[in-house]
Amino acid sequence: MDISISDIKHRIIAGGAITPEEAYVLADLQHPEDKAELREAAAELTARFIPAKFDTCSIVNARSGRCPEDCKWCAQSAHYHTSAEVYPLIDRERCLEAAARNRREGIGRFSLVTSGRAMRGAELRMACSHIREMAAEGGMGLCASMGLLDGEALAALKEAGVTRYHCNLETAPSHFATLCSTHTIADKLATISAAREAGLDICSGGIIGMGETPRQRVEFALALLEAKPVSIPINILMPIPGTPLEQSAPISEDEILTVVAIFRMIHPRAVIRFAGGRSSISRATQLEALRIGVTGAIVGDMLTTVGSTVASDRELAAEAGLDFD
Are 263 and 222 within 8 A, CB to CB? Predict the structure, then answer.
């Protein structure tokens, strides 16, 4: 199938969309000039649709380890032997201190992230209590990532002060079952639908570099259309010792930039944000990603892997011409 990247770009600018067939062709591009044209088109869409602001979110690992799910990338799965910490829901003081620290740093959003299939019962009620206190302080948007929740639990989070729910699809539907057998993409989409019905915005992305093909990365981006995310975090796999993916070879920086560009073509108005793994790529590639599609990040430590500092992200945003505050 022959396509015109310029025609696709102008169609998107006019309010249309790329077709799945066209998106898959983009995954097959090999010539450097074609890849450069794709990146320029993505850069133009980013400049047109996304404010020149570095959209920040920070997370706290609010409950860690002993997860019954068998996701092959995850250090917190009880199925694998890793060095991840194990502890129940953090107490009020630790939670509020983490929120206050991020508020002082000027971080836009703050999220409680918990291990396990779903938060329930007393711990969910305690988490909602923490969130109410953070909401009363103001100054940041509040998010939650607490697994495969039902509508009642999501409504409770909304009532407490959460405005955005995070649930990653993680990868292409055709690849997901090779990486996790204890839940499905359909389970995730059901949670996302329930979150939207509860009045919450959606944050949903995933991880690249888990053995998927370039075409499966496009399939992943297209699957996210059903989730309708306002925020798409892109993680680059950091192989964790003790997990089944510990020997995974890194994907190239050229592949990473192609992913960013294709995601921008498919999701022209979403905030695409760096998440885990970006410390493994060069500064030049990070800056190019910021030019062609990435306009935000999860800052600070990434649950069980080390992220970047707020100071370094301020410098990166400034160099890319993005307003951090």
Answer: no
Distance from first CA to last CA of the chain, Å, rounded? 44
Structure tokens at 118: 């779903």
Q: What is the pTM of this model?
A: 0.95
Distances (CA, A) of 87 to 65, 79, 217, 267: 7, 16, 34, 37
pLDDT in 10s for each residue of the chain, 325 residues: 789 999 999 999 999 999 999 999 999 999 999 999 999 999 999 999 999 999 999 999 999 999 999 999 999 999 999 999 999 999 999 999 999 999 999 999 999 999 999 999 999 999 999 999 999 999 999 999 999 999 999 999 999 999 999 999 999 999 999 999 999 999 999 999 999 999 999 999 999 999 999 999 999 999 999 999 999 999 999 999 999 999 999 999 999 999 999 999 999 999 999 998 998 899 999 999 999 999 999 986 544 444 567 888 899 999 999 998 6
- Phi-psi domain of 132 (left: phi exceeds 0; alpha: psi -120 through 50; beta: other): alpha
CB neighbour class for 194 (10 Å; exposed up to 12, middle 13-18, buried from 19): buried
Q: Residue 136, class by beta-carbon neighbours within 10 Å (0-12 exposed, 13-18 middle, 19+ buried)?
A: exposed
